[in-house]
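Supplementary Methods, section 5.1.

A reviewer requested that the exact input to the structure prediction be made available. We therefore reproduce it here, unchanged from the version used in the analyses.
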Amino acid sequence: MYTVRAFRHAAIPACPGPQIFYLSRFSEWLPVVGYFWLIRGEGRTILVDTGIRDVDECNAASAPPPTPQSVWVQTAAEKPLVQLRAAGVEPEQVDAVILTHLHYDHASNVHLFPNATVYVNRRGWLYAMDPAHKLHPVMFPRDTLAYLAGEAWERLHLCDDEEEILPGIGVFWVGAHTECSQAVRIETNLGRVVLAGDVVMYQENLSLGHPPGLIKDLDQAHEALRRCLQAGDLVLPGHDPRLLERYPNGVIA
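The structure derived from this sequence is encoded token-by-token as follows.
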């Protein structure tokens, strides 16, 4: 069994409602919080996602440019290494990093963990490596991709669309948000916890069956919601600001 803890690493004070609820909530501006997750158990220390590296870099290169209220903000105390060290984890102790997808706010700190095996969806990795797709250089940070393809090459594990990557931990492809999007299933004392990444941004995406708006394929988005609910006893959204209200100190299981 594993424990799961969520860490808030940055936030956007106000996002357009349709980015979170597909073709809906047009008059609303909704907050978004970024999380990374610490998984411990079976003698392992694992991260799911790595948090945002530099909010100024991310905001400056966003296209279209964000409004003043829709930029990423991060306090010094929210920096991922600061929080991990406060939790008693040094970066060298992290055995594995599982990336729900390769976007900047999820993957850009992967280089901080020199001993970790890095788990990326295979089909999404091949998609990202194809120059024909012309991926946005900040949404898919080039230096992070270069690090994985270079210095971390021998620690890179390309995941099948459905794979048990460690005892009690599996991944499954969900697509919808990006070609590399995968959810993570973890065996805990609460049952199977699913970390859904950005195919579930708010809890209402699940409870209402309403996909988020930041998707590339609507059919995949509906299937991703169904698949996450099927796979887990508890499904956790990727950006819901109320998560830490429901789980004080981020302790899920």
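The first helix runs from residue 17 to 20. These observations are discussed further in the main text.
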